[in-house]
Amino acid sequence: MGYLGTVILLSMQGIMIYRISSMYTHNRKIVTLLNIAFVLEMVSLLSIQSLSNVQDVPIQETAPGINLCSQASFPSWLYTVWIPVTCFEVLVLALSVSLAVKYCHSVEIIRRAAPSRNSLVYILLRDSITFPFVTLTICIANLVSWMQLPYIAVQCTFSIAIFGPCIIGSRLILNLREAYYQPFKEECNIHDQDDFRINEIDFPV
């Protein structure tokens, strides 16, 4: 289950990497930073899980007669598996927030625009900030529970961590319409050209 959850999580993060890259108009430095962070996270996750499988640390029973669906070994340091994920999500969230702050300070459209589907605020909250924040919250909850709480609580938080990326990743795919493959400025309808006016069209009589 741990390896399957890792595959699901990394798939969702791959979608988010392309999302952040599009926001930064596929800046080479940003793309390189995200790819390096992603590879380091993947290697760390696989290494920690492989080392935990080598050690034989049996899980204590919660109560006599109660059998839990659990893995064979659960070392006390296994909570470190959430540290690389948390670091990557912090990086994604920081890149999104920094770009949001930049545009909030440089573009007056934020104060004039209504919260429509094309507004900067709506786009940032829906994809670029909300999803990484939710994932980061799930990671922190698992990190704390794996460090301090009993194993049955670990199973509950881990279940949330398994189906969370499935929901978030699916939502990201649905949101990645054709317009989402344009640079971030084009998404927000921030152009140097004048707005298109319907009354300038000459209709045939």
Describe the structure.
By secondary structure, the chain is mainly α. It has helices spanning 2-23, 28-54, 82-106, 109-112, 120-148, 151-175, 184-187. Helix 1 (2-23) runs parallel beside helix 6 and helix 3 (82-106) packs antiparallel against helix 5 (120-148). It is elongated.
Strand-helix topology:
Blueprint: H1 2-23, H2 28-54, H3 82-106, H4 109-112, H5 120-148, H6 151-175, H7 184-187
Helix pairs in contact: 1-2, 1-3, 1-6, 2-3, 3-5, 5-6
The stretches of 5 or more residues where confidence is low (pLDDT under 50) are 190-205
What is the alpha-carbon Rg in Å? 22 Å
Helix share, percent = 55-70%
Query: How many domains would you count in the coordinates?
Result: 1
Transmembrane segments: 30-48, 81-101, 121-146, 152-174
Keywords: Membrane, Transmembrane, Transmembrane helix
Protein name: G-protein coupled receptors family 1 profile domain-containing protein
